[in-house]
Design brief:
This protein is an alpha/beta fold and about 375 residues long. About 45% of the residues lie in helices and about 10% in strands.
């Protein structure tokens, strides 16, 4: 029995090592895209002519502040230029939001290795620092505006764009869409205020009424906010805003229904992934932040679906989940087996003792 038990333990250890190696590989390839790509991955200076890393898919890159402000959330101008240079040299192709919408909604063709550049929050540095670099590389881009902050002298915090700057960039071919009117914040969901939720995603606590919003009040509030943002964008830029980037990437089923009612046909989260036609609620890869490594970003982008998963299920994430589930099931089964063997051994020992006792009594 000891030999059998030893063999079982050796097999268990080998399987555990194999699963851990698999998990290490997967997390190493997928986590790089989760919070600003960093690390020591390597990439060739330029891809071979005609290199194709993925087809009929789009990687949407997400940025916030791109400037030389020394802030953890800011990507330096030097790193941004290096990203764009490497994308160009490695045969990635930038597309516009109009191309992206046509691809998502109608399955229109996009170039191989298609990339959409997006920026959130409408920082003033987008005009003063980022915009000149984008023009230098002839790279199209989209900025999602917190509409109430644009050209608003009463706005506190990091400086935002004004409408003259937005209109100038719009005339140069850059796109602007909604990041809500004024719902980019966390709010209390209970009396204590300890539970904070993204205010566009969930019902919030109403202090004056000493209760949480009803579902009807919540839907009315977010409808009014998104409608107002779209009305201002139409008034200032003459565009019908049918694209929305969710603040913090947070969304809910009621929110998606409200978007449908308002004619917002394409939405974007902050969940890492690669988008295919029909993926109306899209993924984005975080390409910003002080810790970003441009070469590591390109290395992940080159792996395409292998590193980022597919648009609907996230292959890497699901593979990791099932491996973890298998490991858990195996561990439970092993523990149950060991318990059974020890119980059986104990029972046999007890029976042997009882037999010996009866024999000695008879003697």
């Amino acid at each position: 029995m000891k030999r059998k038990f030893a063999k079982i333990m050796v097999a268990a250890i080998l399987i555990a090592i194999f699963v851990q190696l698999e998990l290490t590989y997967i997390t190493g390839s997928s986590q790089a895209s989760a919070s600003g790509i960093s690390g020591a991955q390597t990439v060739s200076a330029a891809g071979a002519a005609g290199s194709v890393y993925y087809r009929n898919k789009v990687i949407v890159l997400m940025y916030h502040d791109v400037s030389d402000h020394h802030d953890p959330k800011s990507l330096s101008l030097a790193k941004f230029k290096e990203q764009l240079r490497l994308m160009k040299e490695n045969h990635f192709h930038w597309i516009t939001m109009e191309q992206y919408k046509a691809f998502i909604l109608r399955g229109a063709a996009v170039p191989d290795n298609a990339v959409l550049l997006t920026f959130d929050d409408g920082y003033e540095t987008f005009y003063t620092d980022t915009y000149p670099i984008l023009k230098q590389f002839h790279a199209p881009a989209t900025n999602f505006l917190i509409v109430s902050t644009i050209g608003n002298p009463a706005h506190k915090g990091v400086a935002k764009l004004n409408w003259n700057q937005v209109r100038e960039m719009r005339r140069s071919g850059y796109d602007f869409y909604s990041h809500t009117f004024d719902s980019h914040a966390y709010m209390a969901a209970d009396l204590s205020g300890k539970k904070q939720v993204p205010m566009l995603m969930k019902r919030i606590y109403l202090k004056e009424k000493h209760r949480r919003e009803t579902e009807h009040e919540y839907e009315r509030r977010i409808t009014n906010d998104l409608r107002r943002a779209n009305e201002v964008l139409y008034r200032e830029l003459g565009i019908r805003s049918d694209v929305l980037a969710f603040p913090y990437g947070a969304y809910s089923k009621p929110l998606l229904k409200v978007c449908d009612r308002l004619g917002i046909t394409v939405t974007l989260t902050v969940k890492s992934g690669i988008d295919e036609a029909g993926q109306r609620n899209g993924f984005r890869v975080n390409a910003g932040g002080m810790d970003n490594d441009p070469k590591a970003l390109i290395a992940v982008m080159k792996k395409g679906p292998e590193a980022l998963g597919n648009s609907r299920f996230g292959i890497a994430a699901n593979r990791m989940f099932y491996l973890q589930l298998t490991m858990l099931a195996f561990t439970i089964a092993l523990l149950l087996f060991v318990r059974f063997r020890f119980s059986l051994a104990a029972q046999r020992g007890k029976l042997g003792w009882m037999k010996w006792k009866r024999w000695s009594s008879a003697s």
